[in-house]
Specification:
Number of helices: 5
Strand order of the largest sheet: 2-1-3-4-5
Order of helices and strands: EHEHEHEHEH
Helix content: 40-55%
Strand content: 15-25%
Structural class: alpha/beta
Distance between the termini: 24 Å
Length: about 130
């Protein structure tokens, strides 16, 4: 199974997603923001990054850009609960910047875990 970095400043969201991914056999390394996520990526072998967009210290778009530049083949899932109107703007931008999957919160457990499992099995999809 995969090792996943989950960057989200919402402790309850992290708790729920960690439990979901662990139930499928994945190992999850938690980060409160993009800076912590990048630090984990530099010291650990990671298969997937899941990042929220709106976080303190370093938000998800900056994290996406930096990670894509330094780890071009790492699969990235972007999630956002940034408000109904802002979600589509953020998520569309994340797709354009190289996110492999994007999801608005609240996220369907089945759809989210299917995406994680797909990326874990196949790595970053070719376009």
């Amino acid at each position: 199974m995969a090792t996943v970095v989950l960057a989200d400043d919402d402790e309850l969201v992290r708790y729920a997603l960690v439990r979901l991914m662990e139930s499928e056999g994945h190992t999850v390394l938690e980060a409160n923001n993009g800076i912590q996520a990048e630090a984990i990526l530099e010291r650990e072998t990671v298969d997937i990054l899941v990042t929220d967009i709106i976080m303190p210290e370093q938000e998800g778009m900056e994290t996406l850009i930096k990670v894509r530049a330094n780890h071009a083949d790492l699969p990235i899932i972007v999630i956002s609960g940034g408000g109904r109107d802002q979600n589509s703007i953020y998520l569309n931008a994340a797709s354009e910047l190289g996110a492999d999957e994007v999801f608005a919160k609240p996220i369907s457990d089945d759809i989210f875990i299917a995406a994680v499992n797909k990326l874990a099995a196949s790595g970053r999809p070719t376009e």
